[in-house]
Amino acid sequence: MSTQSFPGQQVGDFTIHAISDGYLNASLDFLANIDASEATKMQRDAGEPSPSAVHINCYVLRKAGRTILIDGGAGGFKQWGGRLKDNLLLAGIEPASIDTILLTHAHPDHVGGLLNANGHSAFPHAELLVNAREIQFWQDDANLARASERARGNFQIARRVFEGYRDRLRPFSDGEVLPGIRAMPLPGHTEGHTGYIVESRERSLLVWGDIVHFPHIQIQRPDVTIAFDQDPSLAAATRSRLLDLVSAEKLMIAGMHLGEPGFARIERSQGEYRLRYEREA
Fold first, then answer.
1. CA–CA dist 6, 246 (Å, integer)
2. How would you classify residue 84: left for phi > 0, otherwise alpha for psi between -120 and 50, otherwise beta?
3. CB atoms < 10 A from the CB of 206, how many?
4. Which CATH superfamily is domain 8-277 in?
5. C-beta separation of 92 from 44 below 8 A
6. What's the mean pLDDT in 143-160?
7. CB atoms within 10 A of CB 20
8. pLDDT value at position 4?
């Protein structure tokens, strides 16, 4: 069977590929600490033809017979994304071959693709690993009662996913979640928003989840937050801290809302951060 090539990197014994789920549209008016016209200009200057388009990445890691998926895309929720399953098949990956799913957080564009049209698990043999704080937040009826009308739908989707994987749902706290993969708390965007540090044979990579939604804006302007952040000030502080870390350590990053190249490094020059996409290893 012929397969399509997707952006990939080799991190020691791990082979990692960025698998696109497609795009969603988020108004630039959702951004805070920046005027929408300035945000549009930054997007245009960066060569983005559709300034409000947000790309959705998922990542597949393979090592020693294991196939691990990080996040499940939007699955067509609100007509967002929905390309993950087809792209996995194009990459030669059957959904039934995925044995583990790591979740960065439970927003719809990350969990919508974990259930099929019948509401059953789209990855029938996969264990779902989720930060315990993330599960607790979405399962808390008091949080649901305080939520806006828009956000209540997010609770319903998260709960359906957790229920769909209830026999294979494994909460974790910090530290190593799988051999060579360590959870990194990145709070602010959601209660249990989590990145994953992949380490093997002195090479490493950080899958940083939703540290940015508009990378050309929020990497240059870490103070810019988005309406989807549960705690905007904490999200901005986490982003600034992480940009310092990954630029100083020259750590390769992967992110759910980076562009289709999927992998990048952050460079700092004269006090400003810049995104540089990484070529395939």
1. 24
2. alpha
3. 23
4. Ribonuclease Z/Hydroxyacylglutathione hydrolase-like (3.60.15.10)
5. no
6. 93
7. 19
8. 78
* Torsion (CA) 98, 100, 106, 112 in degrees, nearest 10: 10
> Residue holding tokens 């927003």?
107
**Mean pLDDT over each residue of the chain, to the nearest integer:** 96
Q: Pairing between strand 31-32 and 225-226?
A: antiparallel
∠ Cα 190 196 198 (to 5°):
175
Q: Which residue type is seen at 77? A: F
Please say whether the dihedral angle defined by the alpha carbons of residues 215, 218, 224 and 225, taken in this order, is positive or negative. Answer: positive
Nearest to residue 93, comparing CAs of 17, 154, 146, 192?
17
At which residue do the structure tokens 């945000």 appear?
A: 39
What is the model's pLDDT at position 281? 58
Tokens of 198: 């992949």
The whole-number pLDDT of residue 1 equals 43
pLDDT tens-place string over residues 162-220: 999 999 999 999 899 999 999 999 999 999 999 999 999 999 999 999 999 999 999 99
Output the CA torsion sign for 71, 250, 4, 178.
negative
